[in-house]
């Protein structure tokens, strides 16, 4: 069980361990992989296999590409996974932060093994046929180091605050409704823009190096931008029918009937600590949410035990209206 952080020292200890596991160690691993690749480069042919398909090698390029891939991918992924946490989590901490630190370490090992291993199996007269073993070692290393990274970090969480499950006292025949908006906070917008700019830069670079793979990545980048655009602002409606949440683009949308709800509460939400970021997210503890900023949120628990969270102002009033609707449908 995670221990609740009651002192700033607990959070500082967690941040320090997260920094070492999630950023310092991955940078050292990436640097070691780059050194190995540079040492092995003279033993490679002028053109090496850069990509393996179902039928064997299907993409070729300069050996120097492996250096750039390791530098760019090996550094950008841990930076994207750790910098938002370090920048926003100064007074709170959560299990998701610990998970991201462990994942950053594990993924860095996978990238390093894949890059350096791809070079190793093509040295001298080798034909690069051992890529399957390289990937197997890489994924095994990701799992092992991910678990190690998890246990190297302290079990620290800040306690979640929530209001009581209140309801409204309505006169016979009266009905209540509540309308609100969930909009992405400034911090979330900044990090999403940075992530998109990095993705665009990588896409342009890959296009210049390999047009075939570049166009595939360009399509993926366009889809990512489209998905982000649909999750910046949501409309919320609470009424006797239950809870409805939908993007201003029309999709995605959720509808939870009052008959399926156990209770609603106003809670304090920290997207990074609890959900690992901003947007439509799933928490490690099983909750699902539209978490666009730090602060108030409406948390709805269903009869099945599933929990839905949406960040919004005046969440206490929304919870009271929804609890009143739930009370009205109970036998």
UniProtKB/TrEMBL annotation:
- Domain DUF1648: residue ranges: 29-71
* Keyword Transmembrane helix found: yes
Q: Which UniProt keywords apply?
A: Membrane, Transmembrane, Transmembrane helix
Membrane-crossing residues?
17-41, 65-87, 99-121, 133-152, 189-208, 214-234
Q: Which Pfam families match?
A: DUF1648
Asked if the record carries the keyword Membrane, the reply is yes
Q: Would you tell me the protein name for this molecule?
A: DUF1648 domain-containing protein
- Say which species the protein is native to: Microbacterium aerolatum
Q: What is the lineage of its organism?
A: Bacteria, Bacillati, Actinomycetota, Actinomycetes, Micrococcales
